């Protein structure tokens, strides 16, 4: 029966509070800002007394916000209610997959960006056309790997999947071609 946050994402949060006022008896002032930041930097929003929820958006990921709800009543005094809410880490998929140093039997795969919220990456690769796929597990701190033991002069589909600490996954794919093999080897 107090101010609290629901539906928390990386950039937004829904605030819910008890019905203290009515349309006619006043309005709510909502102040919010990063808990670690200066009070002067806080934003204020006014909401009609009929409301009992509001979505705050354009928030910064992985930030603890302090929210103060001040019921401005012309009938009763209601003490301000405060709550703290921490936004989630932003979960963005790899935005770039680069293939380089391709030889007859190997190529180098790198990706960006590298995010603290990623536990590990999975690099899936297999020849096109075809459905035989191999998987390489890469530590979340690394952003490249070498894929070896490939067939010469072939096209491969490479998919990099970021596996977040939250359990979510995001993927991006690229095509890679191996060089022709040495003649008479």
Automatic annotation (TrEMBL):
Keywords: Glycoprotein, Repeat, Secreted, Signal. One of its GO terms (cellular component) is extracellular region. The keyword NAD does not apply. Residues 1-91, 93-181 form the Fibronectin type-III domain. Pfam families: fn3. Its main location: secreted. SMART domains: FN3 (SM00060). The keyword Glycoprotein applies. It is found in: Secreted, Extracellular space. This is VWA1 protein. It comes from Regulus satrapa. The lineage of its organism: Eukaryota, Metazoa, Chordata, Craniata, Vertebrata.
């Amino acid at each position: 029966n107090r101010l609290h946050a629901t539906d928390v994402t990386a950039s937004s949060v829904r605030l819910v509070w008890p019905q203290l006022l009515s349309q006619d008896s006043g309005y709510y002032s909502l102040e919010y800002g990063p808990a670690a930041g200066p009070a002067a930097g806080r934003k204020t929003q006014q909401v009609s007394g009929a409301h009992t929820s509001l979505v705050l958006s354009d928030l910064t990921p992985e930030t603890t916000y302090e929210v103060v709800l001040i019921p401005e009543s012309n009938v009763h005094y209601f003490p301000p209610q405060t709550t703290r809410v921490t936004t989630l880490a932003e979960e963005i998929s790899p935005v770039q997959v680069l293939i380089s140093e391709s030889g007859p039997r190997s190529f180098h795969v790198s990706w960006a960006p590298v995010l603290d919220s990623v536990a590990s990456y999975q690099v899936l690769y297999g020849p096109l056309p075809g459905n035989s796929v191999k998987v390489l597990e890469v530590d979340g701190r690394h952003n490249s790997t070498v894929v070896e033991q490939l067939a010469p002069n072939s096209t491969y589909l490479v998919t990099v999947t970021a596996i977040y600490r939250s359990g979510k996954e995001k993927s991006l794919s690229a095509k890679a071609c191996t060089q022709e093999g040495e003649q008479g080897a």
